[in-house]
Amino acid sequence: MNSNSYANNLIIGTPSYDAANNQLTFTIKWDNSWRINNGPSNWDAVWIFVKRQPCGANGIWSHALLSATSSDHSVTGSYGLVADAVADQMGVFIHRPSAANNAIGSFPTTSSVTIKLSGTYIPNLIGSSTTSDNFKVIGIEMVYVPQGSFYLGDGRSSSTNNFTAGASSTLPVQINASKQTSGLGSYTNYVNSPSYGSVVSLPSTFPLGYNGFYCMKYENNQQQIVDYLNTLNYDQQAARLAVWASTRVPSTNGTYFSYALNNYRQEIKVTTAGTNNTLPAVFGLTNTYNAFLPAGYLNWQDLTSYLDWAGLRPMTEFEFEKACRGTDAPIANDFPWGNKIINTSSGNFSAINTTTETSNSTYEGNCWYNWDGGPIRSGFAATASSNRSQSGATYYGIMEMGGNIFEQCVGGGSGYNYSTFTITNGDGALTSLGLANVTGWPTSGGLSSGTILRGGAFYNNTGNNYQMQVSDRSFYTGTIINGNTVRDRATGGRGVRTF
Strand pairing partners for 350? Predict the structure, then answer.
């Protein structure tokens, strides 16, 4: 059985397996939870999924499908939490019930969760399965972005690659039910040049952001990447390390995923060497506080591999703007926290290099940039008394969509067709090289790849802090820094899920 798992301020207790009923029971607790039925009218949740490993013969980790019936799962304890099953059985969402109007805060005690496994695994369990098998219950904090109309673009006449309502317009584009149902269509409906959009019309199956979806509350952190690496087989681990060099293999103790020790605060490493082509390595972290830091050095294939493994999917740049701006009317040069004010928190921290490192700034527009030393703890600017601008939160309460680590999204232009991308979520299984294999997802990062960086990063200086703005599309052509054979210190991201 696995030990306690931490994902930022989420704590999941050791699961207990009931073979007779094919159920897992564990405890759950997380901070800064909410459910509000006015304003944004949304809530946060934890996406729970399960991996299982037979104990015998170096068993392979597989994704456990869960029951698609919500009543098969239960939560007892604080705030009457509920469990929502999903149709593809990849996991469940745990969140506050609808009756908990305007409930905000931490859970004073833990809740007990029981989830029912379906008995099906992807891939099939390899090795003799017993009641003493290893289980990993993994949780990711998410935020629900509800269905509704919103605007793309901020109306800047000086920005040629901005989203605009037609080729000769500077007006923002409203995405409503009609556009989602019919599809956005030709590039002429959302940009002013064919080089700025998809070369093929966007159909109704392309996620424009109108329909509801869950978005990760925080960027992928280093502990989450460790959890992911520790369920891959040796060859999959080796393929991901080989992005740096063919000599970087999981059979060498101390090998760093981020290339070198203390490299921009990225310190994922091999803590127990594996055996070539046989026994996978065990990855870990150099310092405890790294578990709470966003993971850089993730190229497009790294990010999508993680998302497929977790039953999530990449977000489009349309969904990025929805998650940031919400139903607010756009203003020129607006940032994710809803205004044009931006203040770097660089150098103004307490408890640095601890699990509680926190910004001392009380200014509006808090953002982590202008310091080329690495990312800061997720949620670093949020306190019990901070407002949206002071905490750097989006309209829906999603953190660090500006600064810290670049968000990798589906979109951009420069002659790429990304119209086949859909709301299909990952299935928990990867290729022999540890890659995502979901039809319609861009398979490669880099130039003209159907991928785009949004939201800026820690090393952006004051001269290019415009990259943190909601509608900035500086990387519409793609960029070499998230290509298949490179990794950049500030490329990371997060995923979404349609359910």
Answer: 358
User: What CATH number does domain 5-145 carry, 1.10.10, 3.30.160, 3.40.50, 2.60.40?
Assistant: 2.60.40
pLDDT in tens, the chain (499 residues): 333 334 468 999 999 999 999 999 999 999 888 888 888 999 999 999 999 999 876 789 999 999 999 999 999 987 789 999 999 999 999 999 887 666 776 666 789 999 999 999 999 998 878 888 999 999 999 999 999 999 999 988 667 889 998 767 788 999 999 999 999 999 999 998 999 999 999 999 999 999 999 999 999 999 999 999 999 999 999 999 999 998 899 999 999 998 877 789 999 999 999 999 889 999 999 999 999 999 999 999 999 999 999 999 999 999 999 999 999 999 999 999 999 999 988 778 899 999 889 998 889 999 999 999 999 999 999 888 889 999 999 999 999 999 999 999 999 998 899 999 999 999 999 999 999 999 999 999 999 999 999 999 999 999 999 999 999 999 999 999 999 999 999 999 999 999 8
Phi then psi for residue 76, to 5 deg, are -125, 140
Question: Which residue in this structure is represented by tokens 């670093």?
Answer: 380
Nearest Cα residue to 271 out of 250, 245, 296 = 250
Q: Is 254 exposed, middle or buried (0-12, 13-18, 19+ CB in 10 A)?
A: exposed
Backbone angles phi, psi at 447, to 5 degrees: -70, 145
Q: Where are the beta strands (DSSP E) in 91-198?
A: 92-95, 103-105, 111-122, 134-145, 150-152, 173-175
Cβ–Cβ < 8 Å for 235, 225: no
The residues, any chain, with a CB within 8 Å of residue 277's CB and separated by 6 or more, are: 234, 235
247 contact partners, CB below 8 Å, separation of at least 6: none
DSSP state of 89: -
DSSP-assigned letter for residue 75? E
Domain definitions of the chain by residue range? 5-145, 222-292
CA angle 443/447/450 to nearest 5° reads 45
| Cα–Cα distance measured from residue 425 to residue 404, given in angstroms and rounded to the nearest whole number | 26
Q: State the Cα–Cα distance between residues 230 and 232, nearest whole angstrom.
A: 6
Chain-centre distance for alpha carbon 232: 19
For residue 60, how far is the Cα from the chain centroid?
25
Q: Are 361 and 389 in contact (CB under 8 A)?
A: no
Token pair, residue 354, equals: 């601890």
Reference 161, options 407, 472, 487; nearest CA is 472
Contact 207, 323 (CB under 8 A): no
Nearest-angstrom CA–CA distance, 160 and 164: 9
